[in-house]
Amino acid sequence: MEILQSLIKHQKKEKASFHMPGHKGRGAAFCAPFESEILSFDTTELSGTDCLCHPSDAILRSQKWAATLYGAKEAFYLVNGSTSGILSMFDAFFSEGDAVLVDRACHRSVVNALSLCGLVPIYIAPPTDRKKGVPKGFDKEKIAEALKAYPEVRGVFLTSPNYYGMVSELKEIAELVHASGKVLLVDEAHGAHFPFSKHFPTGAIRAGADASVVSLHKSLPSPNQTALLLLREEDSDGRVRRAVNTFQTSSPSYVLLSCMEQALSYAETHGEEATERFLSMSEKCSKYRTEDPFKLLLKFDGEGYRAEEILRERYGIYAELCDRNHILLMCSWQNSEADFALLGEALSELAPLLKETLAESDVNQFCEGKAELNPREVRKKESEWVLLSDCAGRISAQTVTAFPPCIPILMPGENITKEQIDEIAKRTEYQALDGVKEGKLLVIK
Question: Exposed, middle or buried: residue 36 (CB in 10 Å: 0-12, 13-18, 19+)?
Answer without folding.
Answer: exposed
